[in-house]
């Protein structure tokens, strides 16, 4: 009842309750209750935590509930005591949106879009807290640049499993170079029997970038010829191959090929790329452009952020489309980037170097289509007022394609900077 409503007991909205007679308790029951001690969460029937869990849409909230005590953990995991007849199996979680990770050496956190809540990332090893995430993969896997000199590893945020990666890459002449990864993509979540691979954009001499590829079991990364000329900006694994895109918007692919003798190598694929009509106008417009590759509904998308004075003001989405070949017997497929306009047709995009995703809005209640979420994922840190080098979280938000406008996101941004790495996605 609202304040001041009729029958509220006064103009101030206060309520008056009559005293309720209390039931009488026999001395025998009182003595038994005193001997049993105070009530405990362990005494709660298993169906209670299971029923509560059914209302929790985010996996992090269910984990927190299960961590309340071991009895509730066993009940939620379905290994508790004999269930009463009313107990039903725990409903499956709805599809999970990516969680936003805010790295920090002291107190790393992540943000859930579904619940709009921040959570602490607890019990991470010290070297993982100090590490710089270079890319994310499904199943909670990260590619980490560790604090040790040129040390790298795959790390699973859920299980704590760690897979070391080689610290150097070699060109076709087998000359070794120290590994400095800017962005990385995984072909699959590492698991027994899975031949997973990693592709990375790495620093090269004179400020250039290069490509590096690694297969499970190899003791070094391989760098193919001719990739420095692309000025690489992003890489993803899509339709069975790694795809790189450069500043001139050309793409090149690398896919695994099994030779008759059982060895596996990467086969390169190039395209006869026809530059889009407004490319020169874009480049000369004065904005800093950041390109991302996204696989969506069987098609390859390129998303461009246009950054003015440190802030993203515009985002455009292009689709790679085939064209008629220049010659009947042309060896390369002729393609170009076609502007999609302002409609994503029921999709929302999450941008991140090496880990961009396209998700269907119909699978997530309460979310809108044609929305693009982007991070402040610049590789270069900036000095702070207290003489420390930090990464800023200021240029991040969501872009509404329908309204052609950028909105702050998360609305309750916390924290605002990191002392070791830009933010990244935790993919499920």
From TrEMBL:
Comp. bias intervals (Gly residues): 1-12
Record's compositionally biased regions (Low complexity): 13-40
Matches recorded under Pfam families: Beta-prop_KIB1-4 (PF03478)
InterPro entries tied to this protein: KIB1-4_b-propeller
Residue span(s) of domain KIB1-4 beta-propeller: 110-391
Segments of this protein annotated with the region Disordered: 1-40
Superkingdom per UniProt: Eukaryota
Protein's name in the database: KIB1-4 beta-propeller domain-containing protein
Annotated source species: Urochloa decumbens
Lineage summary: Eukaryota, Viridiplantae, Streptophyta, Embryophyta, Tracheophyta
């Amino acid at each position: 009842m609202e304040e001041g409503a009729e029958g509220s007991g006064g103009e101030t909205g206060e309520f008056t309750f009559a005293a309720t007679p209390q039931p009488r308790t026999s001395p025998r029951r009182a003595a038994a209750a005193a001997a049993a001690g105070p009530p405990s969460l362990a005494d709660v029937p298993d169906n209670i935590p299971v029923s509560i869990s059914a209302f929790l849409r985010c996996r992090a909230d269910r984990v927190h509930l299960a961590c309340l005590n071991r009895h509730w953990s066993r009940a939620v995991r379905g290994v508790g005591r004999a269930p009463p007849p009313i107990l039903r199996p725990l409903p499956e979680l709805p599809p999970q949106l990516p969680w936003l990770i805010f790295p920090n050496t002291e107190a790393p956190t992540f943000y859930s879009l579904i619940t709009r809540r921040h959570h602490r990332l607890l019990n991470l090893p010290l070297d993982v807290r100090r590490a710089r995430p270079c890319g994310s993969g499904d199943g909670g896997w990260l590619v980490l640049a560790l604090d040790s000199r040129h040390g790298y590893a795959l790390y699973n945020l859920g299980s704590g499993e760690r897979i070391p990666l080689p610290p150097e890459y070699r060109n076709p002449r087998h000359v070794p170079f120290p590994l400095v990864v800017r962005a990385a993509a995984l072909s699959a979540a590492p698991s027994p029997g899975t031949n997973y691979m990693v592709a990375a954009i790495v620093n090269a001499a004179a400020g250039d970038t290069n490509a590096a590829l690694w297969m499970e079991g190899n003791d070094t990364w391989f760098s193919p010829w001719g990739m420095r000329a692309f000025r690489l900006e992003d890489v993803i694994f899509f339709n069975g191959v790694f795809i790189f895109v450069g500043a001139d918007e050309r793409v090149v692919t690398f896919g695994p090929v099994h030779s008759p003798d059982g060895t596996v190598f990467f086969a390169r694929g190039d395209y006869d790329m026809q530059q889009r009509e407004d490319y020169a106008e874009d480049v000369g417009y004065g904005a800093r452009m950041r390109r991302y590759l996204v696989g969506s509904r069987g098609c390859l998308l390129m998303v461009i952020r246009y950054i003015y004075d440190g802030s993203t003001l515009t985002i455009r989405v292009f689709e790679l489309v085939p064209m008629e070949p220049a010659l009947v017997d042309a060896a390369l497929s002729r393609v170009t980037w076609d502007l999609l306009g302002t409609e994503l047709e029921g999709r929302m995009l999450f941008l991140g170097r090496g880990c961009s995703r396209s998700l269907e809005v119909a699978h997530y209640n309460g979310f809108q289509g044609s929305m693009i979420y982007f991070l402040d994922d610049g590789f270069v840190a900036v000095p702070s007022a207290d003489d420390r080098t930090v990464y800023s979280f200021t240029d991040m938000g969501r872009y509404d394609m329908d309204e052609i406008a950028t909105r702050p996101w998360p609305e309750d941004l916390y924290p605002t900077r990191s002392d070791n790495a830009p933010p990244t996605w935790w993919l499920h």
